[in-house]
Amino acid sequence: MSQATSAWAHKYRGATVEDLDPPPALSTKPTELISYALMNAYERDYSHLTVVSEDTRALLGYLNIPRLKEMLKNGSVHETDHVEKAMQKFQRSGKVYKVITMDTPLEELEAFFNGGSDGGSPQDFAVVTDDTRRFVLGVATKGDLEEFVRRRPA
User: Fold this and answer.
1) Helix, strand or coil for residue 137?
2) DSSP code for 100
3) What does the DSSP assignment read for 33-91?
4) How far is CA 44 from the centre of its chain?
5) CA distance 83 to 86
6) How many CB atoms lie under 10 A from the CB of residue 103?
7) Which string of b and e fits 68-87 if b means at least 16 CB within 10 Å?
8) Sheet containing 88-89, strands listed edge to edge, beginning at the edge strand earlier in sequence
9) How far apart are CA 50 and CA 68, in angstroms?
10) Which helix (H) or strand (E) holds 128?
11) Which of 44, 91, 92, 39 is nearest to 68 (CA)?
12) 128-135 average pLDDT score
C-alpha cells in the first residue's frame, strides 16, 4: 500500500467528493472584521472559510478557524482586525494546484490530504470547485472523509 492510499481505500468503492455531501463553502472578504468571520464560522460549525475578492469573487485564500483562535489567544490578531491580517493566501505564481471537483474520486482526495497526487504537502481541507475553477462549491475536510468511511458499511 502506498503512502497516498490507506486501509480505507477499499471502502470508497467508486465514491466521489459529491458522496461526502460537502456543505456549501462559506466565503468572507479580506476587509470584513475577524469577529464577523468568526461568528459566521461558529454559526455553521465550519473549520475553514474561503476568502474571496470583493470585486471579482476570485479565491484569494482561506481562514483556518483553529489557527485563527490561536492567533487571537496569543494577541497576534484581534477581533477588530480585518480578515486579510489573519488569512492564509494562496500562492498564485509558479504553483500548480490540484483541482478537486464533485467528481473527484475519494482515493484522489485522500491522496491530496496525504500530500500525494501532486507532490505537495499534507492538507487538512480541500476547496471543491467546478471543473474550470470559477466557482467554489464547497469545502471538504479530512474529518469529512473519516466520517464517510465510518458510516459506510463494510
Assistant:
1) strand
2) B
3) BHHHHHHHHHHHT-SEEEEE-TTT--EEEEEEHHHHHHHHHHTSS-TTSBGGGTPEEPP
4) 15
5) 5
6) 10
7) beebbeeeebeeeebbeebb
8) 27-28, 48-52, 59-64, 88-89
9) 13
10) strand 125-129
11) 39
12) 82
CA dihedral 85, 34, 146, 125 (to 10 degrees): -30
Is the pTM higher than 0.85? The answer reads no
Answer whether 144's CB lies under 8 Å from 22's CB.
yes
Mean pLDDT, rounded, for 64-71: 95
Residue 154, pLDDT > 70, answer no
Closest CA to 35 of 1, 80, 71: 80
| 64: its cell numbers | 483556518
